[in-house]
Amino acid sequence: METNIYGNIQGLKSSQIKKLQQLYEQRQPSYSLTTPEFASTLAAISAEIHQPVCCYINRRGQLIRVGVGTPIQTQIPPQELPRHSTERLSGIRCIATQFKSEPPDEAALITMVRQRLDALVVLTLVGGEGGRRGKQTNGDIKEAFLAHIVPNPEKPWEISPPLSLDDLTEQDDDLVDEWEREISSSASGMPFQDTVSDSDKVLLVGLKTDDISQQRFEDGLQELARLVETVGGSVLETVQQKRSRPHPQTVVGEGKVEEISLLAYKLGANLIVFDRDITPSQARNLENEIGIRVVDRTEVILDIFAQRAQSQAGKLQVELAQMEYMLPRLRGQGREMSRLGGGIGTRGPGETKLETERRTIQQRISQLQQEVNQLQAHRARIRQQRQQQEIPAIALVGYTNAGKSTLLNVLTNAEVYTADQLFATLDPTTRKLVITDPETKERRTIVLTDTVGFIHELPPPLVDAFRATLEEVTEATALLHVVDLSHPAWESHIASVEEVLAEMPGVETRNLSQRVAGVPPVVASGVASLHIAFNKVDQVDSETLALAQQKYPEAVFISATQRLGLDTLRQRLLQLIDEPIASRDAKIEPALHPGFPP
Ligand SMILES: Nc1nc2c(ncn2[C@@H]2O[C@H](COP(=O)(O)OP(=O)(O)OP(=O)(O)O)[C@@H](O)[C@H]2O)c(=O)[nH]1
Ligand SMILES: [Mg+2]
């Protein structure tokens, strides 16, 4: 249990320190901002030490910080706050005492916004006014002010009129939820947001269910750690559990939740990341029990995309993905509420408000959809021009970080950003490439397009939002699948990329149906080896090389950075575009499976 007293404790007697420490033992109800008893205890000790006191309470009702001084003197340092998000409050409220009978001052309010506090409650003490630091106060509470954050960049807070203690403690318990929803559904989001680059301290949670292999599970966790690091977080530790399927309420079992909670506090984690998608109510249950923000893998990926988006098109698509991710989550909450109440007369203002929010988001989504459609049309026109000039197009596809951009750069002298990080590229880049046919000596021109990388279980909102980008792939004459052979999970990367391709709208899913019928995708794609380029061979041991060669006898082996195998690759690219195309409707299929029986 925390016993540290923060702020200005100089000159306090040990009995007074003890009284302050005892505050930590007081459990607050999680359903109201504070109780009359707690407020009075706080006022009494504050009067005794002639100093304001601030208590910070999480949504489980636990006191996480007691400080002597004003909110600004006792604030929680940013790295100890739950992660930044444009949508969420920090899940912490502050109850502060003050000797002036006035609403909280601007310093206190700004501190509230900086910390994204759920609420700031200021208790003013009787007789304090005008006196020296509450000299004359007897510790009675005169009135209370309740302040909270609003999504208004000009003045990001709202303060209640003076409230009696009864008024304050009778405040509706889902007030904070409502405020949070107001912020998350507003276009401007949380005020005063810094970019998400500060180092979050993260606890990963992996759930191994019966439907995934041990290897896939471990690879998934490792990849998740990299994803977290990509958004600027640092992984402190990973907690694992085996269950046949996720716990409906809390994903992991009850005992595990407790273990996570303890570990998170012990290590000072401020964010819990699950290795799978979790429902909004699971997230809420977990957050209530652990008292720390809980997110899932999709949110992390969306965050990376949001960070990376540079171009207008990129930003547009990311916003659409975020909105599409959010909408069913809002809807989910709505369903729960109707289930609880149900029927006439039980639809409170909460439901109505939710409906309004849903509509706002839906409107924004259709607006964004339209813009993406325009983008799609624009890109289609450019492709059409190319087709008229009969320039064949080859798209580089592959798992994120496979080396697609590096390859485009070495082949065409492009200057696409490359980096050893996930999702370095979001926007497609197309460059001309001239190759001399070794037999005819004819100079042939093709265009090569580099696009966004894939990942295992690419979140569906992203697939939809990035359709304009992904269309560069589905509309290409041929695909070159770049694989990082130095990655231990290269085989599952191949499988994941093929899964994503098979699920792309407008793409025939022969591959997928075969998999459903029990044929593993790697086997089903045996013929696709023609189009695989195994990259980073400079980092690969001979056994792996032999294995890959045996499994994919037609693949080319290259190193983009060391410029190995590029001549062979160029010739292979020529062969690719000369292959007959079965039909314009199933462009991917012939590209992926040239020898596949129709
Ligand atoms: N050792 C080695 N590293 C390589 C090779 N090719 C690329 N890399 C490195 O792999 C990392 C990823 O390269 P990128 O070209 O950004 O990968 P990408 O496929 O475009 O990745 P996304 O844009 O994230 O999908 C970079 O650090 C490259 O320097 C190679 O042949 N050998
Ligand atoms: Mg790239």
TrEMBL record:
It is found in: Cytoplasm. Coiled coil: none annotated. Keywords: Cytoplasm, GTP-binding, Magnesium, Metal-binding, Nucleotide-binding. GO terms for molecular function: GTP binding; GTPase activity; metal ion binding; ribosome binding. Pfam families: GTP-bdg_M, GTP-bdg_N, MMR_HSR1. One of its GO terms (cellular component) is cytoplasm. Gene3D superfamilies: 6.10.250.2860, GTPase HflX, N-terminal domain (3.40.50.11060), P-loop containing nucleotide triphosphate hydrolases (3.40.50.300). Residues 336-355 are annotated as: Disordered. Residues 392-581 form the Hflx-type G domain. GTPase that associates with the 50S ribosomal subunit and may have a role during protein synthesis or ribosome biogenesis. Monomer. Associates with the 50S ribosomal subunit. Belongs to the TRAFAC class OBG-HflX-like GTPase superfamily. HflX GTPase family. This is GTPase HflX. It comes from Iningainema tapete BLCC-T55. The gene is hflX.
